[in-house]
Every structure is written in C-alpha cells, then in structure tokens.
Amino acid sequence: MHGTIAAPRTPWYRVLYIQVLIAIVIGIALGAVAPETAKSMKWLGDAFIALIKMMIAPVIFCTIVHGIASMGDLKKVGRVGLKALVYFEVVSTLALLIGVVVGEVVQPGRGFGADPKTLDPAAVKTFADAAAKDSTVAHILGLIPRSFFDPFATGDLLQVLLISILTGVVVAGLDQRTHAIGHVIDTMGQIFFRIIGLVVKLAPIGAFGAMAFTIGQYGIGKLGNLLGLIATFYLTSLLFVLVVLGAIGKLAGFSILRFIAYIKDELLIVLGTSSSETVLPQMMMKMERLGASKPVVGLVIPTGYSFNLDGTNIYMTLATLFLAQAVGADLSFGQYATIILVAMLTSKGASGVTGAGFITLAATLAAIPNNPVPVAAMALILGIDKFMSECRALTNLVGNGVATVVVSAWEGELDREKMASAMAHPVAVGLEVEQKALETAI
Q1: What is the pLDDT of residues 273-301, one digit of tens each?
Q2: SS3 label, residue 231
Q3: 177 half-sphere exposure, CB direction, 13 A CA radius
Q4: Number of domains comprising the chain
Q5: Dist CA 67 CA 387 (whole Å)
Q6: Quick check: is 173 in a domain?
Q7: pTM higher than 0.85 for the full model?
Q8: Are 309 and 397 in contact (CB under 8 A)?
C-alpha cells in the first residue's frame, strides 16, 4: 500500500461536465438579461454541432464495419442485430403507449380552446412540406443512397447504416483478408475518434451558445401558457426512464440511477446542445468501459440512434394528444392505433438533432384518418419545441445506453465486475475516458 502513488487529482475547473454546466448557467443568465446579444450567440452552438456531425457518419461506418468483421461469424451478427431490433421495437412501443396513457390521464391540452381556422399554416410550412414527402414508399426508397459516398456528405444515418452493414458483411466474408482490412478500418476509426477528441473540448462553448440563443429567442416568461405540456413531457420521460428503463436495468443487474450518474457528463452536453449526436463517440467509449463488448457496442449504439428513440416516441404521442385536445378533436380507437403505427415508422431516422422530432410529428398528424388535427395546429407548440427537444435527446441517450448493456448481457458478453466497478466510481471512469480522448487527440 505504501508503494501506491495516487493519480494527480484533476482541478474541478478542468472537468468537462463542470465546464458545460457553468456554460449552461451563463447562457441562461445572458438570455434573460440581454436577449438580443444572447440570440447572436446561436452560431456558437450551430458550429459545435456541425463540427460533431461532420464526423458522425465516418465514425458509425468504421465502428459498424469493424464490429461486424470482428465478430467473424455472420450468424452472430444476425443474432445480435435481431436481438437489438426486437428490443428497440418493444421498448419504443412502450414509450409510444406511455405517451398516449399520460396524455389521456393528464390531458394537458384540455381547455386550451384553439380554433383551427385561426392558426397560421405558414408557421409550420417547412415541417409540413417535409412530412408530406415522408410516405411509406418514400421512407423505404430513402434508405438507398444515390452513391456509396453520398450518405457521408448528407449525414443521413439510415443510409450510413445500410452501407455500413453491407460493407461489414462483405469484409467478414473475406476470410484471411478480414483481419487486415478490419485493422485498417479500426485505425481509420481511431483517427476519427481523435478528431472528435479535439472537438469535444469545445462543448462548453457550444452549450453556452445554444442555451443563450434559446432563452434569448423565446424567453423564460413566454413559457407560462404552455408550461403544462413541457412539465408533462419532462415528467413522463422521467417516469419512463425510472420505471420502464429502471425495471429493464434491474432485470439486467444494474441500477438505472447509477447508470445515469455514470453518463452524467454526456447528459449535460446533450442538455446544452439539444443533440444526442454530440456525444456518440464518448457513449461508445463509456459503454466499453462499463463492460459491454466492443463488437456489440459498435453495432447497437449506432443502430440505436436511428431505431431506438424513446424520447422522440413519447413526444410524438403526447404532443399529438395535446394538439387534439387543444383544438377540441375527439380521437377514435382507430385513430389512436394509426398514430402509434405511423409514429413507429416516422420516428426511425429522427436521430436526436433539434427539429427532427418536429418533422416526425408533422408526418404523424398528416397520416391520421379524416385529419381531425390539422398540421397547422403545430404552430401552437412551435415556440416551445426547442425546450422539449432537449428532453427528447436526453431520453434517447439513456435508452440507447441501457439497450447496449442489455444486448451485451443477452449475448453473455457483459463483464459484470467491470460494470460494478465503473458504476461505483463514475467520476473516476469519466475522467479516464476524458483523459484518453485528450491523449489520443494530441
């Protein structure tokens, strides 16, 4: 014991999540005191998200290809993929149903008294136009990129997943060449991770800009008349995380509260930027530190960003019911069923970026039989969607992390001793991950 030298303690002001938290507070204060100045800070948040997004497609491609190739056995790839998709659909459906149940019980839109004739469709025209193109056939055709490299330019995650899986399957079948190509792909992935290691140090600046703009643009006081919907959505998401994901975590052998504490750094970054994509690489690294196997992490996390959007699902059903109640529309059982089925489709590909959830909501409303809730009704919540997008992204992130641990456990590839140690010392592990990202970035 006397020969053990304690690692130097990192000063609190150099810890990333503390920097992000301070930046969020400063952004809120600036938005409240000097709204016009705060609104001009928007470009800082946009720039940070753009820097992260430029690396997401290549990171997903490299991790999925390497994950499939390293598994070697394509039967195992199919087994893991099938387990992940089954888990995604079951939990996503529960999220949709919880949104419906809470919307019916709480009825946050009852008594709003909005007249559909007085609503301005121009306010949501962009989202309505995007939703109009989102038919089932268009959704399927949209999976196919115009060229192999097009998804890397557009950032379409579903298309990236498609070419990644195809490439991974081919590489895995190259026999003796698989290891060499897999090594090249893994090295490319490390390069991209190192770039992100540099970019992520700018997270406090991005969080400051995004939060300052949000408060400066919409103001804290303006939220009064719609505070009920915001509170209902946040409480519903919290209920889903603690009860549904908590129960799943308990069955898998871990505490959801300890898990949340373990990924608090990433949650704070998402809170500031309203995008779960900004922490994708860190989440993958942390899931490996938690004891999940690298191949499973490389397959489940990127896939979950398109297929496991619990927060977006809760939002769509809850917001749909709010708007129906606000305009005085009574929905039939068939219309409820349509909402759930359509939402299951339209939510795929809403990767957590601000605005994606709003477009999927427009697509869901447009598909309800007899159109009892006009898409123009979305103008009622346009001003507060930014505040709810943060909750969507946070819930999506927690859901994807839990899914990764569960699928790893199903595969018998979860190191439970490693998981217990990581959750018992979340700060230490967080600093280790951050330090490694910094070291690989130099």
Answers
A1: 777 777 877 888 889 889 888 888 888 88
A2: helix
A3: 6
A4: 1
A5: 35
A6: yes
A7: no
A8: no
